[in-house]
Amino acid sequence: MEDIENRKDVEFLVNEFYAKVLKDKKIGYFFNEIAHIDWGKHFPIMYDFWETILFDTMKYKGNPMTKHIVLSKKEPMTSEHFERWLLLWNQTVNENFTGDRASEAIKRAKMIADLMKYKTATNENLR
Asked: Which CATH architecture has domain 7-124?
């Protein structure tokens, strides 16, 4: 296995990850039943997001925190949901890549999950 080296690798990783997510009974429903994701629009955004994180390219422009807070007000996201998201992400990275960027992808996903878990819980308490 090789490391995540370019956008093509990022696209592959994101596609493989969401293939798992959509089949997952714990979190898959968030994407199709709660958020009603338009996958044609969502995938390029996720490619840009992870390319920005892993390659420092500044392709992603947006605020994922706000979107997740709004979504969590529709259907509360729990620690269990974030842990499942992280587990699926880590599995996908580890099944397909190895190296510094792969490790960074796992590290950054943990930071993102922890921050989103905190922010959505904090905003839940403001209802």
From this structure: Orthogonal Bundle (1.10)
